[in-house]
Amino acid sequence: CQVSYNFCVKQNLVLSKRDLGKELLKYVKRGSIYGLLFAESADDFYAASPVQLYMFLHKTIQEALAAVHVAQQTKPEQERIWREQLGRPEMAEVWKFYCNFTKLQNVNVLSLVQANTDERNLLLMLSFFEADNENLSKHYLPQVISNDLTFPISSGYETLVLQYTLQHHGNIHMLQITSNTTVKTHFHLALPAILSQQHLEELGILGVLLDKDYNVTIPEKCLVSCQRLKLQDVKFSSKQLVTLLRGIGKDKEMKEIKLVDCFKEGHSDSIEDVIKSLHVERLSISSDDLGSVVSGVLHNRWIIDLKISIYSGECLALTIPKECLVSCQRFHLDMILTPNQWMVLVTNIAKSKILKQLIVDIQFEETDKPVDQGLCESVISSLKNMPSLKRFGMLVSNGEYPLTRSLLLGALYNTSTTDVYIYNNIEDYDYLENLWKGQTDVVPISPSLKCSLELDSFPLHEWVDLFIGIAQAERLEEVKVIANIRSVIAS
User: Fold this and answer.
1) What are phi and psi of 113, to 5 degrees?
2) CA distances for 477 relative to 201, 418, 448, 452, angstroms
3) Of 245, 291, 303, 250, residue with least CA distance to 270
4) Inter-helix orientation angle 2-9/59-71, to 10°
């Protein structure tokens, strides 16, 4: 055991006869020592015959024997050893064995680990898990583990450590679990312990691979104090996500839910229904899948602050309700729709009497269906008459002249709007030069408008008309101009 310890400290895996000493050499006649060490011959340039070298059957055996050696010392000596050795990577496994052999009864682990860092939390969690001392864990874990915990998972081992910690520490307020591995971590084993936390206010699960066939078991009292939930790259199945959201959203109101790329399968009516009934103030959904879940979001009657980013064309079959988001005050929408769908959606959203901020990141799906001119007038009228609108933003990624012009005019007409932001990320100059082709009227900006404009990629004649209109505003504070003009037209 002493030899094992010495060579763990020195980071040596190969031993010579001199290293073993005469006492151990008596047992080497059969080529091994109790089946733990085995001998091999190695050529030595300076020796007349091959040299006998000895290695442990596996490094784990060496580490376990080293831990036994430390545990056999007096308590003050054990304390001295770990003050010197704890934290060295080569002694990490020795420490785990030591914790298990002694149940952490021989040293004061709190005095060995003092700095309040994520690394300290992880080391303490590993230590108590390996010691498996129920009384010690229940007494000390709530005292020594921070109430705001960030825990990385790279294997099933860390999952078990997290599960054990949460079973003995019920006073965590913020928990963020991260993973960047593609191997199975058996995260479902820790999930019931996470969801059973009674005082957890904020939960984030990022990049954790969930076993496909695992059915999420939701406790009857699920995250009863949780106010903020973020799931990112977790890849739940539809059934798993429905079960989780239904359990979390039961009989209470959440402040914030973020779902970022956590849909693994196709659309489920159940997901649409559960999102429709979520009691949540702020909801953010980003995905390249499951576009039709937007229908459930638009029917939700509790959301105040909403951001939707859908990166596929799945919303093209979306039926837009006449009453959208009746409680919403801030709405950021980024998805692919046809021009007519965009206009119907904006018109219906604009019926709101309380919406203060509307930001649309416009991406169009090409269609043979002509743009409905009646809808264009409806968009202008709806935005113009929104009594509560203070901020309007439009980011245009590809062009559709009637809609972009209607949105811009509607926002500039509105006498309540104080901040208008328009950004055109379009390189199709033929489109830009025809943006307001045939429109001879100056852009009519309300005299009471107080706004900030940032416009990009407008043709020169468009800037002229726009600035004549801007000059009429009496309370204009700031104009930001990013000009990208292809050519200057003399006329």
Assistant:
1) -120, 105
2) 41, 10, 11, 7
3) 245
4) 110
380 three-class SS: helix
Pairwise CA distance, residues 203 & 200, whole Å: 7
Q: Distance (Å, rounded) from C-alpha 310 to C-alpha 290? A: 8
Q: Which two tokens stand for residue 31?
A: 């080529």
Strand pairing category for 228-232 and 202-206: parallel
pLDDT in tens, 148-175: 999 999 889 999 999 999 999 989 999 9
Rounded to 10 deg, the angle between the 17-25 and 2-9 helix axes is 170
Q: Is 361 helix (H, G, I), strand (E, B) or coil?
A: strand
**More confident of the two residues 174 and 490:** 174
DSSP 481: E
The pairing of strands 32-33 and 148-152 is: unpaired
Per residue in 454-489, pLDDT (tens digit) is 555 555 565 666 666 666 665 566 666 555 544 444
For the range 466-473, what are the long-range contacts, defined as Cβ-Cβ under 8 Å and sequence gap of 24 or more? Answer: 468/442, 468/443, 469/412, 469/442, 469/443, 469/444, 469/445, 470/443, 470/445, 472/445, 472/447, 473/445, 473/446, 473/447, 473/448, 473/449
Question: Would you state the structure tokens that stand for residue 168, as one six-digit string?
Answer: 């003995």
Cα–Cα distance list, 59 to 11, 27, 397 (Å):
11, 20, 58
Residue 344: both structure tokens together: 């119907």
- Please count the residues of the chain: 491
